[in-house]
Amino acid sequence: MAAAPAVVVLIDHRDPRWLRSASALLAAAHRLARDHGWDVHTAWVGHDHGHGHDHGPGGELGAAVQHVVDVEGADPHLASTVSAALEAVVAALDATGPARLVLLPSTFEGREVAARLAAATGAGVVVGASSVTVEEDDDGGSGHVVAQKSVLAGSWHTRCAVTSELAIVALDTGAAGSADGASLPQDTPSAAVAPVVHHHRAPRPAGAAVEVLSRSPRPAGDRPALAEADVVVVGGRGTGGDFSGVEDLADALGGAVGATRVATDEGWAPRALQVGQTGVTISPRLYVGAGVSGAVHHRGGMAASGTVVAINTDPDAPIFEHADIAVVADATTLLPALAEEVRARRSRETG
């Protein structure tokens, strides 16, 4: 009996946890598997010994087969190393047989892995997709993978059909999860029946040519990661460089701090906090823009936000056209008052 077509999902992790993108990617994979009779495989960068993550999260998230890939010289605690992630997916593809689709998170690293994987396999690739489906051929064939994505800062919505046998799609997991996309179908396979297949891979010449001499982890703060936060408070030119109110409100809401390109160019915030087409793409449930004008390149990075609150002294600011709540006010004055009110209400609720 021929093996069922497979969808392979790259699980991005920072041990001892996997990132939120894993559940959204697995949910998308299982919807396709349920509708088209596919198998779901996960690829996980790890080590073939008792690390506690040998089995990966795939079983818990309903994978049929889990591929734990030990890449020589790779840090098993960090799956975003591009060379290691690439080898993990290639190992899984070699073992699955007729793979039809590879799903990755549309992060900086995920998009690079997608491009390098496409070059290595000759597959068609789509990055920044908001959803993925399979459309059957009129002649009764196996159909094409079709990815939906917005372009030109959300001005257009496109459908990209991949005509190659293997499709590679880097999915914007926040957009996919905005409509219960992170919820697994009820009929996903049990973790108890998900076999684990271990692989050992040598790095490719390009990866082996780089030697890591030392690593200094960025100090972890109490705020959630920008790309994964449910609440993000973004400061722009209107803050005048004073991010104290932005940080105060973010801490009161339990959210992350972001910045526009102008704010990072001016040195008011680290480049890692830049939200936009050339920065981080976010999809929080609540976005608060403080002194943000709403330039098209910034909107391209936050268009998938749930509720958008915009604060600006200019009543004609472009961001107001995309806001659910528009407040014409000085952000530097309003933000501390909002933070104080949030803390007061939470204190009353818990008291």
Shape: globular
CATH superfamily of the largest domain: HUPs
Low-confidence stretches: 48-59, 177-192
**Reported CATH architecture of the largest domain:** 3-Layer(aba) Sandwich
* Major sheet description: 7 strands, parallel
Q: Provide the spatial order of strands within the biggest beta sheet.
A: 7-11-6-1-4-5-12
Separate helix tally: 9
Domains, number: 2
Instruction: Give the class-level CATH name of the largest domain.
Output: Alpha Beta
The total strand number stands at 17
| Fraction in beta strands | 25-35%
Q: Supply the helix-strand structural class.
A: alpha/beta
Distance between the termini: 63 Å
CATH topology of the largest domain: Rossmann fold
Work out the helicity level.
Answer: 25-40%
What integer value in Å does the Rg equal?
A: 22 Å
Element order, helices and strands?
A: EEEHEEHEHEEEEEHEHEHEHEHEEH
- The average pLDDT is 81
Cofactor: FAD
Protein name: Electron transfer flavoprotein alpha subunit apoprotein
Family: Belongs to the ETF alpha-subunit/FixB family.
Organism: Quadrisphaera granulorum
